[in-house]
Amino acid sequence: MTAELLTGGEAIAHGMRQGQPDVVPVYPITPQTPIIQVFSKFVSDGRSHAELVDVESEHSAMSAAIGAALAGARTMTATSSQGLALMAEVVYIAASMRAPIAMAIGNRALSGPINIHCDHSDSMLIRDSGIVQLFAENAQEAYDLMVMAPRIAEHPDVLLPVAVCLDGFTITHAAEPVELLPDDVVATFVGEYHVPHPMLEVSSPTTRGPFAMPDYYYYELRHAQGVALRNALDVFIDVAAEFEALSGRRYEPVQSYRLDGAERVLIALGSTAGTIKDAVDELRDEGEAVGLLRITPFRPLPMDEIRAALAGAQRVIVLDRADSPGGVAPLGAEIAATLYGSECELERHVYGLGGRDLGVADVRAIFAGGTPDHFGVREHSWPA
Amino acid sequence: MAPLKPWDELEPGGIVVPSEAAIPHTSGWRTGVKPAVDGAKCVNCLLCWLYCPDSAILLDGTTFAGFDYDHCKGCEICDEVCPVDAIEMVAEETVLPERGVR
Amino acid sequence: MSQLTEIRWHARAGQGAKTAAQTLALALLAEGKSVQAFPEYGPERRGAPLRAFTRISDTPIRRHDGVTEPGLVVVLEPSLVHETDVTEGLLSGGAVLINADERPAELAAGDVHCIPADRIAADHNLAFANIAMLGAVAAWLGAPSLEHLQDAAVRTLGAKASNADVRAAVAEGYAWPR
Prior knowledge:
The structure holds 3 protein chains of 3 kinds. Chain A folds into 2 domains: 245 residues, Thiamin diphosphate (ThDP)-binding fold, Pyr/PP domains (Rossmann fold, 3-Layer(aba) Sandwich), CATH 3.40.50.970; 129 residues, 3-Layer(aba) Sandwich (Rossmann fold), CATH 3.40.50.920. In chain A, helix 1 packs parallel to helix 6 and helix 6 crosses helix 8. By secondary structure, chain A is an alpha/beta fold. The longest helix of chain B is centred in the middle third of the chain and has 5 residues. Chain B starts with 17 loop residues before the first helix and ends in an 11-residue tail after the last strand. Chain B is of the alpha+beta class. By secondary structure, chain C is α/β, with parallel strands linked by helices. A 6-stranded mixed β-sheet of chain C has the order 2-3-1-4-5-6, with helices on one face. The longest helix of chain C has 13 residues.
């Protein structure tokens, strides 16, 4: 298999095309735009049979996606930042109506100040919506996860929207070598989408999104939705195993990088993990016992896998590319909860907001116990 | 509180299928009046069928065929929308032909 | 070529720095190198100063941080030296290739090479100097081969200019006398 030079956005568009969506309602926004620019060219060139629905907002994009997915169409979309914020209300609806929608999020800071560059604030905004969130480290992973997304979304044990999160500009606009699978291989891999109750089946009309009373199924349906999201972890593992057989590329809930004997471990999502790997290699060559734990699904959070991977760590350092003003930044809070009762020391940094660069030298400084002076806040969770 | 089905017996997303939707009879919600139709006036425009919030207008193919009194809750919307005044609300005790078509 | 080579391209938005950064990467990918090419985006409009970057390595490139210490700086637009320190962060032993007939006063020191890329572009009916500069970059790096670079340039620019002109401009830049 030979690699092509593709941006992460182009790679996602290929993953969408090969996944054979029937309906793609979408609205352009930086840095998602190249995804949909390339995908719409596939449609106009006849390389995708998708109905590209030119909606007037992201709120409408997700609304249309829900209807399409419940009617039995394989459905995809993509957005970023303010677009995701506008879409957020309907993402909750999509998850609660159990609409399998495969989408891409080109991660970008939320306004204000207005900024088009990467952080994870937008994905974190819909953290609790019930969507599956898979974070890609590079363009290859963005493509691979996009190919897997419909399989996870449409699995009968899941039936939820799945978002592939890729860092805006850093991945969406950077050209890297990407190996694409042949179209027919992906077509077989993703298979056909079978909706449990096709919404347009007039011989068996159904009520969708029914009102739920305090004592009449609101709680039960929310619980069922949460269980489905948890199920997505096992489904991800199974789908990833099938994908590995096709591609040779392995995906796990957590990726342990040089954790053998690691005393200090950084935890991160997305493209920063690649930068950390270079820093880890440098420090290992210098005899430092450091490593990286990269989390691929932030939702559902692989808590057992995280605990197991960090069993030997003395100091865990969480890098959060989103803040929670007045509280604890999301990844740090999740890791603190996951490691509750652990003997290890926990340290948290907020970094990279609005696209602020985090270099290899910065990562080395963090491992050394410092805080690079051009970013972020360093907070100890415990000991105080 | 009525006994609930456990969460894992619910349809994904709380889909309500026809068999379930028909179970609760809402006829008891009527407060003294029920609809009746003058078959000679009805022009079969089916506006009542479109507007009825409880799918209680019965059809025979595409022809108006009366009222489903098990689910009609007496809201009077059919009476309001009927453009030819064929539908009127009558006292609950009024004896009508089956399906309320006179 | 060393383990990791980082190149910074300076131009004005619209002059093809992003295309040049990607074209070089495309040609090197064909030779089995690991590559990464990305532009730096701001609220730019046509004419605003813009930077783009190419990373080249023999091993897979994993880092996704910014390029702050390039080994080579390529200046497509000579007027930029009046408003930008194009040598910022340049590694010792690094060089500047600039589209100019004569060495600008701002670049009096260091390893600076002038390539008359505007003239080469004009000779081959091309709107921008990026193609000829690409040839010079490949010659300076020792890779990719002229043929691979020409193929890549035709692929990225084939629709906008005649293939013969593109190949000729690359070759002329490649043959620039050091």
